[in-house]
TrEMBL record:
<protein>
    <submittedName>
        <fullName>Uncharacterized protein</fullName>
    </submittedName>
</protein>
Amino acid sequence: MSRIPITQVPGLLPQLRLHASASYEPGSALYVYEIVSTDLGMAASASNQTVTFFDRSTLQATGTLAHHKDQITQMRARPNSLLTSSLDGEIGIWDLRKPLSAPALGFSAGDALLSFDLGNDERMLVGGAQLDEEMHLSRIRFWDTRGSSMQAVRVFESMHSDDVTQIHCGARDGRVLSASTDGLVCTFDPAQEEDDAVLAVANTGASVARCGFFGPDEQYMYAQSDMETLQLWSDDATLLADFGDVRAVAGSGVPVDYMAGFRYDIATQRLFMAAGTDAGDLHVFHVGAGLLEHAQVLAGGHSAIVRAFDWDAHTGWAATGGEDGRLSVWAATQ
């Protein structure tokens, strides 16, 4: 039996239906890793180290970035810009108003990068690296995007003891959230020296695959492990809810094999989770304080694991990408 209370609340969100579906690259066996919305269209990263832009209505490709020399690990969108990080140790900032032959700015880490984010002032760039096994260091680097050097201006080396899988720059007080396969979720003040920077540390007890702030004042955090467990924390590292293995919801009649992503809806002040099946269906849940409300299922867009999920509740659309190499767009029924 499931340890997680499940209720069916189909009216919680506008119901989405499959609008369009297409291959990232026809005839290929690529995985689609991530999707973000940009001013140039829907940007999708794939296992061939490229990012392709698609028209969201038609899924016609409109442009491709082919710059990185290794797997693209994360993307972030800003007005007229796209930022990408890679295991090649570089973060690129792309000006979407110009030809896509090369990034407008490139920042070098020297380590394989797993995660990054850009502060709200669009000046502080923060990147999290893989563990340097030779030096036994897990580095978080800081760059000044308006400086004259593309090299890091500061480095933290003792925040984590393993791969830094997540970096998020908060909107409140300039805090930064980091997470690692060491099981720790840290909030810290990047303006301080490393020894004085830590604000709170949550020990999840498992390797952290995803995390993020949520709440109207970013006063809460979610943490997903690579063992498909989910916890909710306050920003002072007080555990609020421990859902355990989310795959246990199958005991409530909702098949789940993995978590695919989270989105916080500011308008309703709700945290939503997308969780999928190996066959390609995606279930959307509202994550409450110790309960999950099943809002809808996105079925028929994929035939394998869904890795990419982007969604806006109030404009009534979602986009997904998967290990089947396909992109799907979902629109609210009229």
